[in-house]
Design goal:
Blueprint: H1 14-24, E1 30-31, H2 32-39, H3 43-55, E2 59-64, E3 67-72, H4 77-90, H5 95-106, E4 112-118, E5 132-138, H6 141-162, E6 166-171, H7 173-179, H8 183-189, E7 192-193
Parallel strand pairs: 5-6
Antiparallel strand pairs: 1-3, 2-3, 4-5, 4-7
Length: 195
């Protein structure tokens, strides 16, 4: 083991972290090719990273004919230290999942017939300056009015949490019946269902 290298260097990029997650889920030996297939990465990239793992004593390497097999070394200092970090990261949700939880928590389901996040967030094409588009069908016109106050507070909360603007398209069931064939509503209903 290179004693002058810190274990976190094995997970200091998105690719390395993705591989680490896959490696930690392996119960048996695996080849670089199989790991590359699972990670959807080039074999040479995976091989280079696995060789770094071996240099840190984080993995055992075995050759059988012309095939290299790799297995996690659970007794390795590097793996023990990385597991502490990894277990903390394991429970972190991606921003969209976290946002869905916020909507489910803060939107009063008793006032809403259906709600979707749509647009660039739902299609996974968002940029840092993208709006968060929310489509809501209230149960009634009265419920729609009650929702306006809730959504004003929610817009502030979302803006502070993510730095993006929440843009809400709210309609009543009657409006929905008249407009359900519009492109924007069809797109919204293909989005991420909240309620």
């Amino acid at each position: 083991m290179d004693l002058n290298t810190m274990p976190y260097e094995l997970i200091n990029s998105r690719v390395k972290l993705k591989l680490f997650s896959l490696i930690m889920g392996q119960k048996t030996e695996i080849t670089a090719g199989e790991l590359a297939r699972q990670a959807e990465l080039p074999v040479m990239t995976v091989s280079r990273i696995l060789n770094n793992y071996c240099a840190m004593n984080a993995m055992h390497h075995r050759r059988a004919g012309n095939v290299n097999f790799f297995r996690i070394n659970k007794d390795s200092y590097a793996i023990k230290m990385l597991m502490r970090v990894y277990s903390a990261f394991e429970n972190i949700k991606n921003p969209v999942e976290y946002m869905k939880d916020i909507f489910k928590e803060k939107l009063p389901a008793k006032l809403i017939e259906k709600a979707y996040v749509y647009g660039s967030v739902a299609s996974e094409k968002s940029k840092p300056e993208s709006d968060i588009d929310l489509f809501v069908v209230a149960n009634s016109k009265k419920d729609l009015q009650k929702l306006e106050n809730v959504l004003n507070d929610l817009e502030t909360y979302i803006s502070r949490s993510f730095g993006n603007t929440l843009v809400t398209y709210m309609i009543t069931p009657d409006e929905y019946k008249m407009k359900k064939n519009l492109g924007v509503i069809k797109e919204a209903e293909k989005g991420i269902k909240i309620i």
